[in-house]
Design brief:
heterodimer, A: 174 residues, mainly alpha, two-stranded antiparallel sheet, 8 helices, 69% helix, B: mainly alpha, two-stranded antiparallel ribbon, 7 helices
Chain lengths: 174, 179
């Protein structure tokens, strides 16, 4: 029970810290900041639990982890939940084209949205150029005299994606 | 205790089963991407549950402890499966991945104009509309696009609510989204 209770508590604590920090100031690299928050909360919490275990005054009803294996187990649970949240957050940080499309159609109500009007609204400025800027910010693309070139970091990342797509027998995507 | 380490590893076996079943279904059963992902996810949870049952029979403990451990591991396996789904989806739909692929295939370098000629907003919208129409999330009535099944709309509204909570705005692009 200690694994479940402390795993969920640490994730909720991390989320609270995340919301509080975001209210104060939005980090430039949001995903990296999120990973740092989850890691810091995990490390501090596990350290606190290890201290509580050696403390005679700790109430008996507090379920403490039994042995290193349970500390590792808590870390695995927190890492899994953190990873799930960070992948969801990417849809919060960046507008998904499918989300924009569906919301545009929903906003038009029961009558629906004319195809012609619909097709005018989604431009390269909305859907493509921001993603190119993200790649430059993250060091995966470099810009020099108007030429965009893929960096080593970008090559490594896309190589993993291509390899897995090949394994799945899938095409380019996008 | 050995049981502690074994319990800790169970969600990883679940993730392994998830990915293995997904890949096998794609390569040998010719299943569609979405269907094979869902089946793989189910297999991951099933392996996790089976692993927990085996360990509980080998190392019995109190009912509360067994239920707590099973809940923790099923939660971890579900979270890992969800993340795996999104990893695969990155290759399927992520614009940044496609942009990197276009640059790589062009020998590593393109001007912005050349890049947009290969991968543009028009193409992005076309592909997504085909997907939304294929899944009946969007339907065509009297030549106009209308909402069909509501799963995508519900997900979109949840994401917008999270954007308002965390970012104080509905999105990067305000068109059609700000109310």
């Amino acid at each position: 029970m200690a694994v479940l209770i402390w795993g969920v508590t640490i994730v909720l604590l991390s989320f609270a810290v995340h919301v509080a920090l975001w209210r104060m100031r939005l980090p430039r690299r949001q995903t990296r900041a999120l990973l740092l928050i989850f890691s810091a909360c995990l490390i501090l919490s596990l350290w606190s639990l290890s201290i509580a275990q050696g403390w005679d005054g700790c109430p008996r009803w507090v379920p403490l982890p039994m042995g290193i294996a349970q500390y590792v187990h808590i870390a695995i649970l927190v890492a899994a939940l953190a990873l799930a949240y960070v992948t969801t957050y990417s849809a919060v940080e960046v507008d998904s084209p499918s989300l924009l499309i569906v919301l545009a159609i929903a906003r038009a109500g029961r009558e629906g949205l004319e195809k012609a009007r619909f097709e005018q609204q989604f431009s390269d400025d909305v859907l493509v150029r921001p993603r190119i800027r993200d790649l430059v910010r993250d060091g995966m693309v470099a810009v020099d005299h108007g030429r965009h070139s893929i960096t080593q970091k970008g090559r490594r990342f896309v190589a993993i994606m291509i390899a897995y797509r090949t394994l799945l027998g899938a095409g380019k995507g996008g | 205790m050995a049981s502690g380490w074994l319990h800790a590893m169970v969600p990883m076996f679940g993730l392994g089963a998830n990915a293995t079943v997904h890949v096998l279904m794609r390569r040998f059963a010719g299943a569609g991407m979405l269907r094979s992902l869902f089946v793989g996810f189910g297999a991951g949870l099933a392996v996790t549950a089976a692993g927990e049952c085996c360990l509980d029979s080998l190392y019995p403990t109190t009912l509360a402890e067994m239920l707590g451990m099973a809940a923790a591991n099923l939660l971890a396996a579900a979270a890992l499966g969800y993340s795996y789904f999104h990893f695969v989806n990155l290759g399927e739909t992520a614009r940044r991945v496609r942009i990197l692929r276009e640059l790589r295939e062009a020998g590593g370098e393109l001007s912005e104009r050349e890049l947009l000629a290969r991968y543009s907003a028009r193409f992005i919208v076309q592909v997504r509309m085909e997907r939304l129409l294929g899944n009946r999330q969007v339907v065509v009535r009297n030549g106009r696009y209308c909402i069909g099944r509501c799963a995508m709309l519900l997900s979109s509204r949840i994401i917008v609510a999270m954007k308002r909570l965390l970012l104080g705005r509905a999105g990067e692009a305000t068109l059609f989204v700000d109310r």
